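Reply to dn_fold:

You asked what the input looked like. This is it:
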Amino acid sequence: MALIITDECINCDVCEPECPNGAISQGDEIYVIQADLCTECVGHYETSQCVEVCPVDCIITDPDNTENEEQLRAKYERITSENG
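and this is what came back:
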């Protein structure tokens, strides 16, 4: 599953630099996560780094983008091969 940032986001700026895939960026009002780049840190870390650092717990799984571990790993491999 990709993650999403809810409207509880306080724009604290801590999540963006933690994303190893560059999936997080400033949106019009709050930070947003680009689903096609979000691997929930699979391939990089054991846990989603943005979720770990978020002080208001506003980063949740996106019910509209459900992916299993195998799909997330395939996305990670695609992203890293494009950038490598």
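The chain has a mean pLDDT of 94.
Hope that clears it up.
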